[in-house]
Design a protein that fits this description.
Number of domains: 2
Number of helices: 11
Shape: elongated
Number of strands: 11
Order of helices and strands: HHEHEEEHEEHEEEEHEHHHHH
Oligomer: single chain
Distance between the termini: 28 Å
């Protein structure tokens, strides 16, 4: 199949061909970036939190204060552990993906000259790592002697447990147990390492830069009861535990409550909505592009019926006519893809500077190209088959 006759024909229909090229270019650019964003969102939604998600429920309250706060909180925890279906209960702050967090920047030496990265902080009452279902991979959990009052936002107990990711960031290639950092003038040493635990709000690669501390419940550390329960009893436990807390503490206000899967779904609600929206846009864009190709090819077939008949009379076979229109479509789509790749790169640069999106991997460009080539060939097939069915006798008819 010679390309020259096809190019000559396209030059006679410059405007129509240019419009399709532009439509394909826009589709290619949007498709590549949209699929990339969808993949980024889906990967973000698959984050491993490190907790026993299917077994956790939580109740957030307000109204426990005064000198008797510690005794009241301990009483509430003991009562909650007696609710049918509850395996363990603890006060914890915050929860992973709760969209709230406590963060700090440690010093790696006592003089405070060398600073570490921003770290997410977890505090909890005795047994809170077991309640959360966090997996300890090195060292030990907190014991009763590690728990003390919290007279400020920092626990007084000088020990901590860190995630494996944070240990690798602070002490690469070294044994984490026994290592330490300073927050202000206070030194905290590592007694254990857990496999995973993400912050209350995700921060990319730093999401697992988290450290856990021990603190007894008091008026500065109260309000978020976390219960580990039988998965099938989650809804009932939320209801029963809330009623029990209100009965024990008439002055208490329950601000919020729910299961951990509900909390996770709420955190990723915008990500899920964006992924569905972009997927819908991609499908609509591909449909519109296919309809444009079908419409243009059908128009050209109707215009060229006499020309096609002449070619058939001169010996062109049906497959030659079919191949002609498919090749013509391939050239148009290829021109649109070439322009679309440049446009896709430009859109990605804008998104990188405006929304801190990562650079578009080059693999998305050939994926978009193959998709549009296949779409173009599928869209032009029906008009091309109609063209191939034009009989040679058409060449002898008068206009």
């Amino acid at each position: 199949m010679e390309i020259r006759p096809i190019l000559s024909s396209l030059r006679q229909h410059k405007l129509a061909a240019l419009l399709i090229v532009l439509e394909i270019a826009v589709a290619c650019a949007i498709l590549c970036n949209a699929v990339f964003v969808i993949r980024e969102r889906l990967q973000r939604m698959q984050v491993v939190t490190g907790v026993a998600e299917s077994e956790l429920v939580w109740i957030k309250n307000d109204g426990i204060d005064g000198d008797q706060a510690m005794a009241l909180l301990q009483r509430n925890l003991a009562a909650l552990r007696g609710v049918p279906g509850v395996k363990s209960a603890a006060l914890v702050f915050p929860l992973p993906l709760a969209n709230t967090s406590m963060n700090f920047n440690p010093s790696m030496d006592e003089a405070g000259k060398q600073h570490g990265p921003n770290i997410g902080m977890f505090v909890g009452s005795q047994g809170y790592l077991q309640t959360l279902g966090v997996k300890l991979v090195e060292g030990r959990d907190f014991d009763a002697a590690d728990f003390d009052d919290t007279d400020s936002w920092l626990p007084r107990s000088p020990v901590m447990i860190v995630t494996r990711t944070l240990a690798g960031r602070l002490w690469p290639g070294q044994e984490a147990l026994g290592q330490a950092f300073w927050v202000g003038k206070k030194r905290y040493s590592v007694i254990g390492v857990v496999e995973h635990l993400v912050r209350g709000d995700l921060r990319g690669t730093a999401s697992e830069y988290t450290a856990m501390f021990a603190a007894r419940p008091n008026r500065l550390f109260s309000g978020l009861y976390v219960l580990r329960v039988d998965p099938q009893a989650r809804g009932r436990v939320v209801r029963d535990a809330s009623e029990l807390l209100l009965k024990l503490n008439p002055e208490m206000l329950i601000n919020d409550k729910g299961t951990y899967p509900e909390l996770r779904a709420a955190y990723f609600k915008q990500d899920a909505s964006m992924a569905w929206m972009l997927a819908t846009v991609c499908i609509a864009l591909l449909i519109i592009t296919a309809l444009g190709i079908v419409g243009l090819a059908s128009f050209w077939v109707s215009q060229r019926r006499k020309q096609i008949g002449v070619r058939r009379a001169l010996g062109a076979r049906r497959r030659d006519i079919l191949r002609y229109f498919q090749t013509e479509n391939f050239l148009i789509v290829s021109a649109g893809i070439a322009l679309g790749m440049l446009l896709a790169y430009g859109i990605n640069l804008f998104l990188m500077t405006r929304y801190e999106l990562p650079r578009l991997p080059w693999q998305y460009l050939p994926m978009g190209a193959v998709t549009l080539w296949l779409l173009g060939q599928a869209a032009v097939l029906a008009p091309a088959l109609r063209a191939a069915a034009v009989p040679p006798v058409v060449a002898t008819r008068s206009v």
